[in-house]
Write a structure and sequence with these properties.
This is Mg-chelatase subunit ChlD. The chain is mostly beta strands and 683 residues long. 15% of the residues lie in helices and 43% in strands. It has six domains: 181 residues, von Willebrand factor, type A domain (Rossmann fold, 3-Layer(aba) Sandwich), CATH 3.40.50.410; 90 residues, Sandwich (Immunoglobulin-like), CATH 2.60.40; 90 residues, Immunoglobulin-like (Sandwich), CATH 2.60.40.10; 86 residues, Immunoglobulin-like; 90 residues, Macroglobulin (MG2) domain (Immunoglobulin-like); 89 residues, Immunoglobulin-like. The strands form twelve sheets. A six-stranded mixed beta sheet has the order 5-4-1-6-7-8, with helices on both faces. The chain has a five-stranded mixed beta sheet with strand order 10-16-15-12-13, with no helix packed on it. A five-stranded mixed beta sheet has the order 18-24-23-20-21, with no helix packed on it.
């Protein structure tokens, strides 16, 4: 992602050469692990180092320049942000040496990095600029757009420029707002030619003194936009002008900072609808007279201005005066409906009266067409507040009170439950989307099972949970997911279960065994045929049968035995808790297994063979071609023993149409095992 980085430094050069001399600038450098990605056979970190080397020598001597890096020391650490070179004059050599040492490793905490850079440069007291270089989007649970608004609001004259490393259009939008909300540029390069242009622009930058002595003729420019707009609304601005890469449309407050003015918003024209010469901007939420300005990024001059009046608008919230605790509340709203606008549920008494946002729902993330949002409410009764929050400017435009009142929350179940059996619970409560009933071990507070109310019999307010297999005291909790709060508890005593397996002590290899069981009979319980010697003593389930899939009414299951003689186990397995509740031994004994028939047959003829073996449902006699599939072999004819004369233990086979050497095989289908073979010549 070489091109965007060079544009980042180019942007830095342009800003520095014309208007930032004696100002403070910090480069925030991407040291995340993705910088090891390659472009045209070279890693991005190598290309970035070269770009820094090319540009650092072109900067004004009196520019105070610093370097921050993120993600360069630890993997997975969102706090891996470091001020490597403090802003000062003459730091070019130190910055070059530092970037040469950066070894990409970690995540992309770009928002926290920009904030730290701004605070280091005392952005609330002095003019400051940050140039963020990133090849990815935020990965540390922060909102770059909101950060841009905050820094612009608090800063004396703060600007952030964001340089994207080949980001997609959607990814670019997620970081471009950080620049636009502070009046900076979002720059994305896409070709080698653009890189060359940027380097040329850096080298040929005309000193500000010469530009002042011989002012150039300003290019023509024009802006078309509404004469007025309601607070927080989005407007389309049509422009005519040079259309340069760094040109922007700005929203400017001419009365800010004692009449010096302040850039409030900006949108690079290349990030708008460039083909139709149009950008879309969100106006501020403070009524007043402002200016739209065409900013020529190459000449660093304002080419056109246009006044716009930001007028008040109706902003209101409609909701019930009170609602039961922890139940969702639906709020209808009137307001700007801006991209980051939200309805908030606010606790005015929290944090010693400072207040706290408890729940926040973006308007665009709900029923936007009908101007409705639905929010969780707190589990604690009291007086709260609903707020219309304009996200672009971090401003509350309207409020209304909401009282949360006490409501019944109960759980009812049998006082005792047998181990391993399901526990049926009737509930009364909010029934919110993420509410659940939990089974908790009373001894250690550990959650054993949980059932979301919406995933069970919601209409009848009933849930069924798996019961634990260990006897003892437990608790049922009504858990309100929105507030992560337990609203009700009830004790339940789990008693020991009677578990038994009745079966013969031994069974012939490959034959089926019928087992009579006693136990919980839960939905996922099964009887297993288990080989304790398999996998070097770890054991392996050879066969299993779910109780519900057999003769459940008579507590019987029938399952195959192993094909190999030896000592095995029958096990009662409780699926809900993944626990074996009982085992008993069973021996698999060898059977007489044989195939008797002609030694040779003619091609295409029918012939009969007799067999001895388990005679299980899926057992078969096969004619096997060992040469097929490159020596892997395949069955060219197969007849299930149950499809022949099972009493006489004979089957009829069809000889292959091609002569050759074949095999007759007795195949045990349950275990997919060949129990005996004998040669067959086909002539």
């Amino acid at each position: 992602m070489f091109r965007p980085l060079v544009f980042a430094i180019t942007a830095l050069s342009v800003f520095s050469s014309h208007s930032l001399a004696a100002d403070k600038v910090a480069i925030v450098f991407d040291g995340s692990g993705s910088m090891w990605g390659q472009i045209e056979g070279r890693t991005k970190i190598e290309i970035a180092r070269d770009a820094m080397t090319n540009v650092l020598g072109t900067l004004p001597a009196d520019l105070e320049l610093g370097l921050f890096a993120y993600g360069h020391r630890e993997k997975g650490n969102c706090a891996d942000i470091e001020l490597i070179v403090p802003p000062a004059t003459g730091t070019g050599a130190a910055i070059k040496a530092a970037t040469d040492r950066i070894t990409p490793k970690g995540k992309t905490p770009l928002s926290a990095s920009v904030r730290q850079a701004a605070e280091t440069m005392r952005f609330t007291e002095d003019k400051a600029t940050v140039v963020l270089v990133t090849d990815g989007i935020e990965t540390c649970n922060a909102d770059p757009c909101a950060l841009g608004n905050e820094l612009a609001r608090l800063g004396v004259n703060f600007t952030a420029h964001v340089i994207g490393f080949g980001l997609s259009e959607e990814e670019g939008r997620q970081v471009a707002c950080l620049a636009e909300n502070t009046g900076g540029l979002y720059i994305q390069a896409g070709s080698t030619a653009e890189l060359s242009d940027a380097l040329t622009a850096t080298v040929e930058t005309v000193p500000v003194e010469e530009a002042a002595a011989e002012p150039a003729q300003l290019p023509d420019a024009l802006l078309e936009a509404p004469d007025e707009a309601e607070i927080g609304s989005r407007i389309d601005v049509t422009w005519q002008g040079p259309g340069g890469r760094y040109d922007q449309i700005e929203l400017h407050d001419p009365m800010a900072r004692g009449g010096e003015g302040k850039r409030l918003r900006s949108k690079a024209i290349v990030n708008g609808d460039f083909d139709n010469n149009q950008v879309t901007m969100t106006v501020v939420t403070d009524p007043g007279t402002y200016e739209l300005r065409y900013w020529d990024g190459t000449g660093r001059q304002i080419l056109a201005t246009r006044a716009i009046d930001v007028i008040p608008a109706e902003v209101a919230l409609f909701a019930p005066d009170e609602t039961a605790m922890a139940r969702p509340v639906t709020v209808e709203w009137i307001g700007p409906g801006g991209r980051y606008d939200a309805v908030q549920l606010y606790d005015v008494s929290a944090r010693g009266g400072e207040g706290k946002v408890l729940h926040n729902k973006r308007l665009r993330n709900d029923d936007f067409d009908n101007n409705k949002v639905t929010l969780p409410t707190p589990a604690k009764p009291g007086a709260y507040q609903l707020r219309y929050y304009a996200g672009e400017d971090k401003t509350v435009l309207a409020t209304r009170s909401l009282d949360i009142i006490e409501a019944p929350v109960t759980l009812e179940t049998e006082e005792a439950a047998e181990a391993g059996k399901p526990i049926v619970v009737d509930w009364v409560g909010p029934g919110a989307r993420y509410d659940s009933v939990r089974l908790v071990d009373a001894a250690n507070g550990k959650k054993l099972h949980e059932k979301r109310l919406r995933n069970d019999d919601f209409d009848n307010q009933r849930v069924t949970l798996p019961g634990p297999v260990k006897a003892g005291p437990y608790e049922l909790h009504y858990y309100n997911g929105d507030n992560k709060a337990v609203l009700a508890t009830v004790p339940v005593e789990v008693t020991a279960a009677v578990v038994a397996l009745e079966a013969p002590d031994e069974i012939g290899q490959g034959r089926h065994v019928t087992v009579v069981w006693t136990g919980p009979g839960a939905r996922y319980d099964s009887v297993q045929f288990f080989d304790p010697r398999a996998r070097a003593g770890d054991g392996r389930v050879v066969h299993q049968k779910r109780l519900r899939n057999d003769d459940f009414d008579n507590s019987k299951v029938t399952l195959p035995s192993a094909a190999k003689p030896g000592d095995y186990e029958l096990r009662y397995y409780n699926g809900d808790n993944k626990t074996v509740m009982l085992t008993r031994p069973i021996a698999v004994v060898p059977l007489e297994i044989a195939i008797e028939g002609p030694e040779s047959v003619e091609t295409g003829t029918k012939f009969s063979v007799s067999w001895k073996g388990p005679g299980a449902r899926y057992d078969s006699v096969q004619i096997w071609d060992p040469k097929a599939r490159g020596g892997k072999g395949r069955a060219v004819f197969e007849r299930r023993v149950w499809s022949g004369d099972i009493d006489a233990q004979t089957v009829n086979l069809n000889a292959p149409k091609e002569a050759g050497d074949y095999e007759l095989r007795y195949f045990n289908g349950d275990n997919k095992a060949v129990l005996v073979t004998r040669p067959l010549s086909v002539q």
